[in-house]
Amino acid sequence: MLLAGDIGGTKSRLAIFADDAGPRRPLLEEILPSGRFPGIEALIRAFLKRTNLTADRACFAIAGPVISGRAAVTNLPWIVEAETIRREFGFRSVRLLNDLAATARAAPLLEPRELHTLCPGEPAAAGAIAVIAPGTGLGEAFLTREGTRRLEHASEGGHADFAPGSPLETDLLRDLRKEFDHVSYERVCSGPGLWRIYRFLRERRTAEEPARLAGRLAGADDPVPILVEAALTEKTGICVQTVNLFCSILGAEAGNLALKTLATGGVYIGGGIAPRLLPFLEEGLFLEAFRRKGRMADLLFRMPVHVILEPRAALIGAAGE
Question: Residue 188 in 3-state DSSP?
Fold first, then answer.
């Protein structure tokens, strides 16, 4: 029996799996609010008490870098240590994975209905797979093949320098340098990044900000859903421009990751933002920026590109341990 978890700053998804059922069929699964618990041990204890099930090993996908079996959870004051968990619960083994590395593990297991294909490409059976996921931050990871085994590799590539691909993006970079010493892709290609792009365009007055929209944004804890809704349903000009610029920047960085990992097995876009932006991702700006790589453009034309629709991908990857 395996206890698997996808541990995030807002919520955590825990499940118990039997070896003979595989990573797609949990015996029991539950979502718990992470912030209500002082640490992962209390979270695990509460879950196991409610399930009345036991496990002999565990694997957790953690939103944050994992180094030598230890991780600090992004947006939570938790330090997660595999050995501490193993001792406290008597597990035979405990493994920690970065959540994007776990998502990369899941990518080959996802079914067609759990994906939205932007480009079918020409997938290489033994090719590397890259995953990029804009959310609270910008996660990146990749999967390589060694014989019959696939090996996941975590990355903090989202913190690499943002490279503008147009005069408008150059102006965006100049603007953000007034606020940040280092402007990474995560600063512009994430939920908070979407809001930064909007503020930049608003200050440039490239389009009018409707008074009704301004009022909704002023009282919002999270402006991103409002911006996305206004772009999708109301076709508000400044919001459409914001989302288009976001998709172009995401495409450029997805292409960078694809080149660096030689992702001939496919590029997968995860996170909570991309599935909500499918109409914009399909319009062409994303793939245009993805393929705008000079002499390597032909290589990128052949790479499959998919959006992950399955919210349990990281849990599936952890359960595949």
Answer: helix
**pTM score of the predicted model:** 0.92
Residues 35 and 147 in one domain: no
d(CA 245, CA 247): 5
Question: Among candidates 138, 167, 171, 174, which has minimal Cα distance to 253?
Answer: 138
**Cα diameter, the chain:** 60
As for how many domains the chain has, the answer is: 2
Query: Phi and psi (nearest 5°) for 183?
Result: -105, 110
Assigned domain for 132 exists: yes
Q: How far is the C-alpha of 166 from the C-alpha of 3, rounded, in Å?
A: 47
Q: What is the pLDDT of residues 43-99, one digit of tens each?
A: 999 999 988 888 999 999 998 889 999 999 877 899 999 999 999 999 999 999 999
CA distance 110 to 222: 30
Tell me which residue range forms the domain holding 143. Answer: 121-303
Is residue 299 situated within a structural domain? yes
pLDDT-based confidence at residue 10 (cuts at 50, 70, 90): confident
Contact 265, 120 (CB under 8 A): no
* Amino acid at the residue 292: R
Note whether residue 198 is domain-resident.
yes
Mean pLDDT of 106-124: 95
Q: Do residues 147 and 86 share a domain?
A: no
Give the CA distances from residue 137 to residues 142, 194, 313, in Å, rounded to whole numbers and listed in that order: 17, 11, 17
